[in-house]
Amino acid sequence: MSSILFHKELFIPSTIEGLNNCLYIVDEIKEKYNLSFDTVFALHTVIVESVENAFIHGNKGRIDAEVRFFISVSSSEIFVEVEDIGDGFDIENIPLPSVNSSNENEGGRGVFFIKTLSNCCYTIGKGNIIRIKLNR
User: Fold this and answer.
1) Does the pTM exceed 0.85?
2) CATH number of the domain at 4-135, out of 3.30.565.10, 3.40.50.2000, 3.40.50.1010, 2.60.120.10?
3) 21 or 92, which is more confident?
4) What is the 3-state secondary structure (H, E, C) of the chain?
């Protein structure tokens, strides 16, 4: 296991400003640790999807409910962890979005993007914490 080069934990409100505070960290680390365009894109996308899911599904849109956001960077990996106050979910039981469906339901797309862009993702505890790992 490689040593941690950077880590940060934030407690953010369930607002666009809270999400932006998480994304500022991507700007902070992309040049410092020479992240590729593909890594920055994947990191940005998994942060947006996981934090927005925490706001909407976990915290049920309550702007007074905080989300815990944690990120760490090592020489070979980036870890993201997002925790909300919700009841949790089973990431393995989220149906894949249907490409051929005429249904406008977008359910499951965020988790699909997270699974596709990360090397590993899973929920822990009661399912209200998602851990995501990306290679650098």
Assistant:
1) yes
2) 3.30.565.10
3) 21
4) CCCEEEEEEEEEECCHHHHHHHHHHHHHHHCCCCCCHHHHHHHHHHHHHHHHHHHHHHCCCCCCCEEEEEEEEECCEEEEEEECCCCCCCHHHCCCCCCCCCCCCCCCHHHHHHHHHCCEEEEECCCCEEEEEEEC
